[in-house]
Specification:
Elements lengths: L3 H12 L4 E5 L18 H4 L2 H4 L2 H6 L1 H16 L5 H12 L3 E5 L5 H4 L6 E2 L2 E8 L10 E2 L19 E5 L8 H10 L4 E5 L10 H8 L3 E6 L11 E4 L2 H11 L1
Parallel strand pairs: 1-2, 1-7, 2-3, 7-8, 8-9
Antiparallel strand pairs: 4-5, 4-6
Helix pairs in contact: 1-10, 6-10
Bound molecules: ligand BV8 and zinc ion.
């Protein structure tokens, strides 16, 4: 349960803020049933990162990596946006200068109607050509669950298709990263549902503080960012965000 005071203080600060940016991680999708990465039943618990979310793993064992992503797609296909996604989407519609930056690849922010969403790690619902060929678009949407074939192919050159997500060791899209850093120049920066372990996304918290933002964390537990933010609110994003919204 959240203590009342920090939530009220944050709501008061948001009422006067022109620019607000929220960085989300797997914790905001947990209430929708999407497994987190490092929590008690986290995805990485059962798999080792280097086994799955790297280009080397895909080159070595594309079938194993696609089995994992196909399983995650099936999990996520049954999930709906929760109250955390809905509040953030409402903020992005009501305030032109309020932004959501997400590390999540489940597209639940999109499905909730979030405007100007900045997706740092891509989408599990999009593909790109593994070759890559120059005839395929940089990425295309493919929401088939389950896949008709175990190894999806590029429709333009028949090479393997890959999930259009950013794997460990791969650079983030320069345009997305630039948009995220521009959004870090804000009055209030909220890190919600992230363990703040993955860079460069986690570095946005420091970037926001360096630009004078009031920084906030909303998380069930203490993370590596908790000591660095101005206010760490211990609570569930799907409870705290609606509480704040009710005070705006
Ligand atoms: C890059 C897509 C360079 C794939 C993902 C050593 C030190 C520092 C950095 C590095 C290092 N060694 C390597 C690096 C770089 C590496 C990195 O940061 N590694 C970490 C692990 C140390 N980063 C990279 O490789 C990045 N690329 O640096 O490239 C480069 C430059 C030029 C040229 C070549 C290369 C790429 C990183 C992107 C990796 N891809 N995802 C996929 O999803 O399959 S990251 C993956 O982790 C997900 O996107 C996830 O979102 C992200 C972060 O995890 P979280 O979202 O925070 O989720 P987590 O489970 O960890 O935490 C959930 C939190 O929610 C918990 O705190 C929990 O308490 C809380 N919670 C739970 N329920 C709730 C809740 N909170 C509130 N309410 C609730 N209800
Ligand atoms: Zn191709």
């Amino acid at each position: 349960m959240t203590t009342d005071h920090p939530v009220r203080a944050l709501a008061a600060r948001l009422r006067g803020a022109r620019r607000v940016t929220v960085l989300t991680g797997a914790g905001v999708s947990a209430a929708s049933g999407v497994p987190t990465f490092r929590g008690p039943n986290g995805l990485w618990r059962r798999y080792r990162v280097e086994e799955l979310a790297t280009p080397q793993a895909f080159a070595r064992e594309p079938r194993l990596v696609w089995d994992w992503y196909a399983w995650r797609r099936e999990q996520i296909a049954a999930c709906r946006p929760n109250r955390a996604h809905e509040v953030l989407a409402a903020w992005s519609v009501r305030h032109a200068a309020w932004r959501v930056i997400t590390q999540n690849v489940d597209d639940l922010h999109l499905r909730a109607g979030t405007r100007e969403l900045i997706r740092l790690h891509g989408s599990i619902w999009e593909m790109s050509c593994w070759a890559p060929c120059d005839r395929a678009p940089r990425r295309w949407r493919d929401e088939r669950v389950p896949f008709p074939e175990p190894l999806p192919r590029c429709p333009h050159c028949a090479a393997l298709a890959r999930p259009a997500v950013v794997w460990f060791g791969e650079p983030l899209n320069a345009r997305d990263l630039r948009a995220a850093h521009e959004a870090a120049a804000c009055d209030v920066f909220i890190a919600a549902g992230t363990s703040a372990l993955v860079y460069p996304a986690a570095g946005l918290i420091d970037a926001a503080r360096a630009r004078g933002a009031f920084t906030v964390e909303i998380n069930l537990e203490t993370t590596s960012a908790s000591a660095a933010v101005d206010v760490a609110i211990q609570g569930a994003a799907e409870e705290v965000l609606p509480e704040i919204e009710a005070l705006l």
